[in-house]
Amino acid sequence: MIRFLFAPVTKSLVIIGLLVATGVGLMKHVSSNRGAYSEKRLGNFVLSEETPISIGHGVTGLSASTELVDILVEREAHFRVPRNYIQSIIANAHARSVMLVLVTLFPDFAGATVDGARGTLPENLTRLWWDNYPNLIRILSTTKPFSVEHDGNTIVFTAEEHEPDSPWKYGLLKSKKRSHALTDVYFVRPGAEYSGYVVYCSTEGIGPCNIDLRLSERLVIQYQFHKSLLPHWQEIHQKVSALIESFIVKGEK
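Predicted structure:
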């Protein structure tokens, strides 16, 4: 498992991004039949917690465009993501947060295309869920300040620390302590060179399986997939980790 840790992005990055964006403006196009909009960013626009709220400061709906979008999340991680992976970005200046939702399909992990050919999602989808795309992978940014008491993975590892292994399937153990009527919890114990793996799978209908990747003390990336893909959890974990890492702008001070 790749463990992501980042030094905080300095305040100068936020200021530079916003100064470049000032006066540039965003051009929006309203789709009359879907009620959504898309936008084109000019110059070096960076969407962040500091960005003022307006209609243009966000992204809604899939696009086949491969234009790169800069997003600064929690002032710690600077992402540069091709537009055809983005389902939505919502900036909330009052809450000082950015909610980022990326989507792709197993096993190719490619961005959306105009017609959805070759195992990709088509642009301008009005409905995107596991009942019509069972191979859907959703990647979400969440803010979860780290504490041992509230970290989901740590809670599972602690609860199972002195318990005998309960082998399940696909190389996973089942947590007897943390599973309940609505959620089955599977895990791999951490080791000297492996930080472990925990997956929470809904037992209700088409509810997804959820995995947390902690990037920093404040930022967690959660990804989701359908329960039917659980046999492929290792491949999914490796490819999601590599995809996220490829979107991170490195070497900034």
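Summary: Helices lie at 11-21, 152-160, 233-247.
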